[in-house]
Amino acid sequence: MSSPEQQLLDLSAQLLQAIDAGNWDAYTKLCDPRISCFEPEAEGHLVVGLPFHKFYFDLPPSGRKQLSSISSPHVEVIGDVGLVYYVRLVQKTTDAGPITVSSNETRVWKREGGTWRHIHFHRSPC
Ligand code: GLY
User: Which of 49, 85, 96, 122 would suit a FRET pair with 74, their CA atoms being 20 to 30 Å apart?
Assistant: First the structure.
């Protein structure tokens, strides 16, 4: 059995893989239905719940590739709450060729009945 810190890092990587692949089922399995977030797409507003995120998963396939990597991670476990901070590097293809975009991300997880659920995140461009 891996440490809670390693579990949270693995879950965060799985979450980013689900986003990159547009895999809504995998994404929702990791998230609490009342997940909250601040992210650039929300224009500075706090968003609660999954429907805001589903919009992006439901977009037609663009044929473009995207690969997220976790850089410089830091993980803290405080009781049944886990905090994962890192720089997210997103390599993606565009009409002008491949680019890399970086963001600071904080992912908050809560352990319920032995299972970690993603309950909040904050993403800011670097
Ligand atoms: N925009 C969805 C996520 O970063 O979890």
Answer: 49
